[in-house]
Amino acid sequence: MTLRRASLLTALLLTACGETTPPSPAGPPVELVSVPHPDVADFKADVQAAIGPARAAFEQQSAVKDGAALGEAFGKLGLVYQAHEQQEAAAACFINAASLLPDDHRWPYHLAVLREETGEFTDALALYEATLQLDPTYSPAATRQGLLQIQLGDADTARATLQSVVDTDRQNAAALAGLGDLARDRGDHERARALYTESLTLDPAASQIRYRLGLVYRALGQIDEARAALAGRGERIPRIRDPLLTIMQAHKHPASHYIDQANAAIGQNDLRRSAQLLSYALAVEPEHEEGLVAMGEVLLAARQDDAARGQFETLSQAYPENVYGPYYLGLIAMRSGDRDKAIRLMDEALAIDPEFDRANKALSRLRGN
User: 48-58 pLDDT, tens per residue?
Assistant: First the structure.
């Protein structure tokens, strides 16, 4: 991380903390802000089921972790709070996570989204910039930055920001619509029509764009087209494909919620949906025992052995007494033709559970019995 990037992020965090003392040349502040944890008893049962365990896990982790590990713990709790619209508590968690992990773009980004939601637009813009300094490739940050620049009347900067997004990602419906707004505002209705049409082609459900398109058609004197577009107008804006916010939204529910849905999808032989649901479960609880087994099995069924190996290695490290770790790693070794490794792993599985029939049968085949 360059000194300029570190100084920018540090200054933003000090401002967010209400501090006015200049940052030390040695780097970001080590003092952590106090997190105003909400009272779980004030929430409905389903929200308590998500926030309560997350808070308990954080308290346990924060007692023994420091540095980067503590930063991850703060960030994860912040995601839970953000998912349940506890902005003040989430912001404090993200400030601490960013202080402890100054090279990680996730935490200034989540803080930027929160600042924008609460109307602190200047801070949000600066935090989007800090995010992009850390990861210039994270286009959702640039897209949100450009759209906010439009909202604040900085048309020239917004145009440059959004054009840079579109130059690298022509599938970004939100950025295209933003460029359409800028073209319409300067009277270039033909370009606005083309950009709105392209945005709608990419995201047909973005019904609000139909209203903007209708206004452009009207300005062009194309009355029938204007009527058709306006007839389909609605409130939905173009969606921004945003992996970080998708993961955050997953924290609305406990991991078990997604695992139950994934099991139903597996029953319908929908491996793609089950994998997506299990990814949400493991985002919420990365070492969920049942989730690791299920994700590994789905990946094996999809013939993604390398990815499956990673799941079962994590399982074996976190749960050394779980027989499925060595068993499935043994199966992967069998598939790759590594007979000796497969035998060793099946022996490990049987040392955990001598009655595990599938491991006994696999070992018999391997030894030619």
Answer: 888 888 899 89
Helices (H) and strands (E) in the chain, counts: 20, 0
**Amino acid in position 227:** R
Instruction: Give me the mean pLDDT over the 138-164 stretch.
Output: 97
pTM score > 0.85 for this model?
A: no
**CA dihedral of residues 262, 263, 269, 273 (deg, nearest 10):** 0
Question: Hey, what amino acid is at 151?
Answer: Q
Closest CA to 139 of 113, 168, 108: 168
Angle at 37 between CA 131 and CA 254, to 5 degrees: 75
Mean pLDDT within 181-193: 97
* Per-residue pLDDT band at 1 (split at 50, 70, 90): very low
Q: b/e per residue, 73-112, with b = 16+ CB within 10 A?
A: bbbbbbbbbbbbebeebbbbbbbbbbbbbbebbbbbbbbb
At 195, the amino acid letter reads: L
Residues 6+ apart with CB under 8 A from 68: 100, 101
Percent with pLDDT over 90 in the chain: 82
Contact 93, 81 (CB under 8 A): yes
Q: How many CA atoms lie within 13 Å of 113's alpha carbon, on the beta-carbon side?
A: 24
Q: Which residues are within 8 A (CB) of 33 and not within 5 positions of it... i.e. 6 or more apart?
A: 17, 92, 95, 96
Of the candidates 30, 104, 284, the residue with the CA atom closest to the CA atom of residue 94? 104
DSSP string, 209-220: HHHHHHHHHHHT
Token reading at 152: 């604040």
Q: Give the Cβ contact number of residue 159 at 10 Å.
A: 18
CA distance 252 to 240: 19
Q: Tell the burial category of 367 from Cβ atoms under 10 Å away from its Cβ (0-12, 13-18, 19+).
A: exposed
C-alpha 72/C-alpha 65 separation (Å) is 10
Nearest Cα residue to 84 out of 251, 200, 286: 251
Write out the two tokens for 24. Answer: 């030390």
- Mean per-residue pLDDT for 199-228? 96
The pLDDT tens digits for 22-36 are: 333 344 455 899 999
